[in-house]
C-alpha cells in the first residue's frame, strides 16, 4: 500500500471515529456546555478533552490515541514499524487495523504482560 493510500485509509478512519466521538461526547452529562464538541476539532484537542473529562477508559479514547500515533508515524516515515521492537508490522495486521502499533510477537508479549498486571491488581 502506498503512503497516499495509507493516509487516505487513516483519514477515513479519523472521520468515522470523530463522528462516533462527537456523538458520544455530546451525550455525556459531564461535558460542560462551554466545551463545544465539533467535527473540525483536531485529534489532539479531542484527546485533551476526553482526558479532562476522565473518559480515558473508553474504547473510543484508545482508538483515538492509536489513530493519532499512526498519523504521526506516517508523517515521520515510521508507519508500519512496531512500537516495541521496531520491526515491520505484518501487512495482514495493518490491513485488518491500519492503526496497529505492534508486530504479532510483541502484541502477544504485551497482552500476556497486561493480563499478568490485571491479575496482580485484583
From TrEMBL:
Pfam families xref list: zf-dskA_traR
Sequence intervals crossing the membrane: none
Domain Zinc finger DksA/TraR C4-type: residue ranges: 77-110
Entry keyword set: Metal-binding, Zinc, Zinc-finger
Zn-finger (dksA C4-type) residues: 82-106
Protein name in the entry: TraR/DksA C4-type zinc finger protein
Organism of provenance: Shewanella electrodiphila
Amino acid at each position: 500500500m502506498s503512503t497516499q493510500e495509507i493516509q487516505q485509509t487513516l483519514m477515513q478512519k479519523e472521520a468515522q471515529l470523530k463522528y462516533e466521538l462527537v456523538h458520544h461526547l455530546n451525550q455525556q452529562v459531564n461535558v460542560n456546555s462551554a466545551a463545544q464538541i465539533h467535527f473540525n476539532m483536531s485529534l489532539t484537542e479531542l484527546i485533551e478533552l476526553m482526558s479532562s473529562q476522565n473518559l480515558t477508559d473508553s474504547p473510543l479514547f484508545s482508538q483515538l490515541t492509536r489513530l493519532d500515533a499512526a498519523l504521526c508515524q506516517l508523517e515521520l516515515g515510521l508507519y508500519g514499524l512496531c512500537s516495541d521492537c521496531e520491526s515491520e508490522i505484518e501487512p495482514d495486521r495493518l490491513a485488518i487495523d491500519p492503526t496497529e502499533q505492534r508486530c504479532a510477537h510483541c502484541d502477544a508479549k504485551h497482552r500476556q504482560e497486561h493480563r499478568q498486571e490485571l491479575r496482580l491488581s485484583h
